[in-house]
Each structure stands twice: as C-alpha cells, then as structure tokens.
Amino acid sequence: MRTNLKLIALCTALLAPLAAGTAHAERLKDLASIGGVRQNQLSGYGIVVGLDGTGDQTTQTPFTVQSITAMLQQKGVSLPQGTQLQLKNVAAVMVTTSLPAFAQPGQTLDITVSSMGNAKSLRGGTLLMTPLQGADGQVYAMAQGNVLVGGAGAQGGGASVQVNQLSVGRISAGATVERAVASTLGADNQIKLELNSTDFATASRVVEAVNDKFGPGIATALDGRVIRVRVPSSSDQRVAFLGVLENMDVKPAEAAARIILNARTGSVVMNRAVTLDTCAISHGNLSVSVGADTQVSQPPAGSRGATVVTQNPQVALKKDGGKVIMLNGGASLAEVVKAMNAIGATPQDLLAILQALKAAGSLRAELEII
To answer: Would you indicate the residue range of the signal peptide (predicted)?
Structure first.
C-alpha cells in the first residue's frame, strides 16, 4: 500500500506542471471521429474439437451434446436412438470479433474463442466452421482454425503453476468477411464530426479552424459535440479532403478539472493541477489544514510605491500529533499527496480526505470514484 501511494505522489507531481500549462494543438482525428465510420461487433456459437481430454463434461453441459448431434445430422450421420455421447475432446464456445469500417468480402479478421461450458482447456483444439452474426442477425463472417492459447506452465517438486487462462484463445486471421456493411459516408455531400467529449468551446474552435482552412461555411456546429462539414461529391476527392481534415491541428479548450479515485487500489489520477481553498480536516490520527500565509511587502522609505499585501495558500499536515509538514505557494493537490506520503498516510486516508475536501467545497474539481 505504501508503494501505491508513492506511485500516486510521483504521478501527480509529474502531471501537475504539464496540466498547468496551456493546451497544445492536437490532430483533429484525436479529438473527434467521423459519424458512421465505426466497428460492428460480431459473435457466433461454435464447437472446438481435438482437445486432449480437457473438453466439456457432457453430463453438465447438455448443449454440447445437442450441438454435436445436430452437426452430425447435417453431415449425414444418424445416431442410433438412445446413444449416450461422451465427448471429452469437444467444447462449446462463443466466438467474437469486430468488423472494421469499410471491410470487404475476403478480408480476414482475428477472432477470440471463449469456452461456454466447463472445459478445462482449449489448448490444441480446432474451431469448426462458425458463422458470425451482427446485431441484425445477418451473417457477416465465417470463422474456423486452430485455437492458440498463450501463456506458460511450470511443474516441479510436486507442485504445478499455470500462468495463463486456458479457457480463452485466439485465432489470427481466423475469420473471413462474407458480407460488407453498407456505408452512407458522404451522403448529401456532408459528413458529421463527433467530438470524443462534449465541449462547446472546442466545437467552436474546430469550426473556426476548418473554415479558415477550406473556406467560410464549410463547417457548422450543430451542438457541443456534433459538427457538420460539407465534402466534395467525388469519392476520390472526398477521401483526400477527409485525409487533410483529420490531420489538421486544433487547439482544444482546457478541460474541466477532474480527479479519478480507485477505491480498491487507492490510485488517484488528475487531468490538471488542482489548488485547495481554506479548510481544516481531521481524519483519525491525521490532520490537514489549508489556510493562507499573509505576506506584506513595503516599498523603501521615500519611494512612491504602495504597500502590497498577498495571501499565499499554506498547507499543514500532521500525524499522531508529531511532525508537522508545511507547504507554501500553490498548495496544489500534488503537493498534498506527496506530503501525506511523507508522514505515512495510507491510500485509504487520501481517498477519505479528498472526499471530505470536495464535500466542504475546498476542492474545485469533478471527483469520480470507480
């Protein structure tokens, strides 16, 4: 747990100066996607054969027996009435993959094969021809091939250690696309850019950058997320236009302050430097006080300068009534985390204190606990 907190302090210290700076320009393809250009999930039910006695126990997985019986009937093999199959070398599986945008018949896809029953291992098995269907129930690809189960095992001294998951495997280029998904890209000579996150300022900057590049009226913001862009009618000109559009540099607006807390591991991630307002917290044997250090600057005698009074945030941390650690200047959250690590606070202490700071209104950032 101490190691986790040290890593948290290191990460926050490294992120703070980066986040405090102004946002830099990014490619438009990193900020937004083109509407309709997306992957489609495919899945199918299949059978893996050729296992070395590690298949499903048919007494507990009757669907495996039913699948084999149906397959044999399709192949013209009729089993005698009342036959009890013992299929130790067969496993029922689900096959999954994603169909990329613009995929054409004949293109191959990598697939994942996952056991549905109680098979001990899929290693060495062969997936029989399996149709892969989309959400509309249509078959878009066919899968088949030898299942590869990665990882390693070690055995010695009467004990064995398995360092992998044996009930899931992959087949590289194991599926062949049989049907293409119809594309409406460029319909009515326009496309829609969809920002990865809703931000009105960023949408406005994207519209301004596109219109400066291609001419006024080319881009129009529909809301804080969707931007309509006029494109050429010719397919080759449209592709060239989109290539230039995606690689344009746009300076996104500064994101809202956000802190992600993982309650299970104690991890803390920030997207910018967050300062703390005046507050005082007592958590068990740990106390945190955020206040102001008043400094008065007086001009030399006889000069016309004015007296300047500044108040700098100051953080005091103490545990078990012992050593007090003072932080001056920015009083950023990164500095508080680092100081809490120095006095031996646990990740759970940090999570509780951040929640209390947010509740008290002293932490101006979105706090999300996962």
So the answer is: 1-25
pLDDT for position 34: 94
What amino acid occupies position 230?
R
Q: Under a CB-based contact definition with an 8 Å cutoff, are residues 132 and 75 in contact? A: no
Do the beta carbons of residue 142 and residue 181 sit within 8 Å?
Answer: no
Per-residue pLDDT of 243-254, as tens digits, reads 999 999 999 988
Among residues 269, 144, 245, which one has the least CA distance to residue 186? 245
CA distances from 244 to 197, 208, 276, 344 (A): 22, 16, 43, 53
Q: Rounded to an integer, what distance in angstroms lies between the CA atom of residue 292 and that of residue 38?
A: 52
Q: Which residue has the higher pLDDT, 80 or 331?
A: 80
List C-alpha distances in Å: 320 to 1, 285, 352, 357, 361. Answer: 19, 5, 17, 21, 26
Listed in sequence order, the residues at least 6 apart from 85 whose beta carbon sits closer than 8 Å to its beta carbon are: 58, 65, 68, 69, 79
Angular region, 284: left φ>0, alpha ψ -120 to 50, beta rest: left
Among 321, 318, 324, 312, which Cα is nearest to 278's? 312
Rg (CA), the chain: 31
DSSP state of 333: H
From residue 173, alpha-carbon distances to 76, 94, 109 in Å are: 30, 17, 5
Q: Are 108 and 173 in contact (CB under 8 A)?
A: yes
CB 331 within 8 A of CB 313: yes
**62-79 average pLDDT score:** 85
Looking up tokens 């960023």, which residue turns up? 202
Query: What Å distances lie between residue 19 and 22, 54, 327, CA to CA?
Result: 8, 52, 20
> What's the pLDDT score for residue 307?
61
CB-CB contact of 33 with 226 (8 Å): no
